[in-house]
Amino acid sequence: MTDLSDELLPTTRRALLHRLAVAQTEGRAPSVVAAVLRDGRLVWSGARSMVDDHAPTTDVQYRIGSITKTFVAVLVLRLRDEGLLDLADPLERHLPGTPADGATVAQLLSHSAGLASETPGPWWERTDGALRPALADLLEEERPRRHPAGRLHHYSNPTYALLGALVERLRGEPWGEVLRREVLEPLGMDRTTLLPEHPHAGGFAVHPWADVLLPEPLTDTGLMAPAGQLWSTVADLARWAAFLAGGHEKVLSADTLAEMRRPAVAPDTDDWTETYGLGLQLIRHEGRTLFGHGGSMPGFTAGLWVSDADGLAAIAFANATHGARTGQVAAELIAITAEHEPRIPEPWRPLPEVDEQLLALTGPWYWGAAPHTLRLAAGRALELSLLGSGGRASRFRAEADGTWTGLDDYYAGETLRVVRAADGSVSHLDVGSFVFTREPYGPAEVVPGGLDAEGWRAY
To answer: What is the Cα–Cα distance from 76 to 95, expressed in whole angstroms?
Structure first.
C-alpha cells in the first residue's frame, strides 16, 4: 500500500481511522476499506478486518454495485459529445423494440423515464443473466412504466441495462469492451473489471440476530450488468473520483461532467437532501453538496462522494450485504477531513495580461433600475454580480466569436454580447435580450419601450 503517512495531520488520520473502525464494528462487516483524496490525490487510506493482523489493501477488488451506473453514463455522454445521439432522442430512435420506447436518453440517464425499479421474475442481483436473454425480458410487457415520463425521479435498474445496450448498438461491440478501451485504459484503471480478478474480497451476508456469516453467490447478471456488475479497488475508484471532479481530455470534458451533476428533475422541496443528475447522485450532507454514487450488490456495499467546494473525495467499501452504510461513511470521511484540515485557498494573483477594452467593461451596470457589477476574471471570463435585489448573477465563459456564454442558473447557456454604437463606443450589454446600461434606465434609445420624456422625477 502507498505510504500516505505524511499527507494528513495525525489527528485527522486518527479521526478517519476511528470512523472506519466504528463502521466495521457497528456494521458487523467482515472488512471495510476506504480512502480520501484531496485535489485529486490520494492522501489517506485505511482498512479494518475481522481477521487479526490482516486488512485489505487499496488493490483488493470489491463489487461496487450501482457506482457502475456512473461509468455507463459517461459512455452515453461520450456518444452525445461525438454527435452520435442527442439527449432528447427517444430511445427507439437508436434501440427500437424495447419496453421503454418513447423515453428519452436524458430521462433514462436521470431515472425520470418512469420505468419500473426492478425486473420481473426472480431477484436479478442473485440470479444468472441467462434468465433474461433479451431486452424485452428486462421490464414487464404490459406495464413497464410506473409513472409518466419526465415527471419525477424514480430509480430504475433496468433503465441502465437499456443504456448499456444503447452503447453496444452505437459502438457495435459489448459495452464492457467499450468501457475498457475508451475509459478505463486512458484513466489507468486496470483493476476495474466486469468479473472479479485476484485479489478480491468475498461477499457475505451477516445474520440479523447472530454474529454468523453466509457467503453470497457471485453471479454474472448478463444484460443487467450495466446496472451494477463492476468490481473495482479503492485505488482505481480514487482515479475515478479525480476524473469526476476535473475531467480528462481523452475521456470527457469538465464541462460535460458539470452537466452530469446538475439536478435533472427539480427536487420536490427547497430543503432537498438527495436528487439525481445525469448518472450521478447528489446529496446534501452537513452543509455540503456532494456528488457521486452509492452501490450495493449481494455481499457488498460501496460509496463514492466528491465535494467540489472542499476539493475532497472519499471512497468506502464493505463486503457485507448491508450494515456498514458505506455511503454514509464516505460522506463523513469528507466532513472529518474538511473540519480538521479546511481547504487552504490559492493565493491571490493578478491576471497575467489584461485587455484594455475588457477592463473598460468592468464596474456597475444596470438592468432597468437593478444595480449589478461586472468583473473581469482569468481567461477573459466575466462575472455578473448583484448589488441588491431584483436581478440575476452568473459567470460567463468567453467564446471565440467575441461573445460570452452564461454558466449559472437563469443565464446558463445564454449569450452575453457587447453592443457598440456607430462610433465604436460601448452602448450596452445584451444578456439573453436583457439590456444592461451604465445608468439606471438609460439611454432611452436602447431601453425597450423607451423612457418617459420627463425622466426621473420626485413626487
So the answer is: 13
Q: Name 137's Cβ contacts closer than 8 Å, sequence gap at least 6.
A: 119, 120, 121, 131, 223
Q: Rounded to whole angstroms, how far apart are CA atoms 208 and 58?
A: 29
Give the residue carrying C-alpha cell 420506447.
101
Q: Is the peptide bond before 133 cis (omega within 30 degrees of 0)?
A: no
Are 162 and 98 contacting, i.e. CB atoms less than 8 angstroms apart? yes
Q: The C-alpha cell of 135 is what?
A: 431486452
Judge whether residue 390 has pLDDT over 80: no
Helix (H, G, I), strand (E, B) or coil at 169: helix
Phi-psi domain of 14 (left: phi exceeds 0; alpha: psi -120 through 50; beta: other): alpha
Q: What is the pTM for the complete model shown? A: 0.89
Spatial separation of the C-alpha atoms in residues 114 and 228, rounded to whole Å: 20
Cβ within 8 Å of residue 182, ≥6 positions away: 75, 78, 251
Which are the contacts of 204, defined by CB distance < 8 A and separation ≥ 6?
A: 30, 213, 214, 215, 216, 299, 319, 320, 321
Residue 12 DSSP SS3: helix
Query: Please, what is the end-to-end C-alpha distance for the chain in angstroms?
Result: 77
In angstroms, how far is CA 257 from the centroid of its own chain?
7
- Whether the Cβ atoms of residue 451 and residue 439 lie closer than 8 Å to each other: no
Nearest partner of 4 among 49, 37, 48, judged by Cα = 37
**Cβ–Cβ < 8 Å for 330, 315:** yes
Spatial CA neighbour of 162 closest among 107, 221, 223: 223
> How does DSSP assign 374-415, residue by residue?
EEE-GGG-EEEEESSSSS--EEEEE-TTS-EEE-SGGGTT-E
For the chain, domains (ranges, CATH) are 10-340 (3.40.710.10), 356-446 (2.40.128)
The per-residue pLDDT for range 167-189, each reduced to its tens digit, is: 999 999 999 999 999 999 999 99
Q: Is residue 24 within a helix (H) or strand (E), and if so which, with residue range?
A: helix 10-26
At 123-145, the pLDDT tens digits run: 888 988 888 888 888 887 778 88
The backbone region for 218, taken as left when phi is positive above 0, alpha when psi lies in -120 to 50, beta otherwise, is beta
Q: According to DSSP H, which parts of 55-207 are helical?
A: 68-81, 105-109, 157-171, 175-179, 185-187
Confidence of residue 1 (pLDDT cuts 50, 70, 90): very low
Residue 57: CB partners within 8 Å, gap ≥ 6? 1, 33, 47
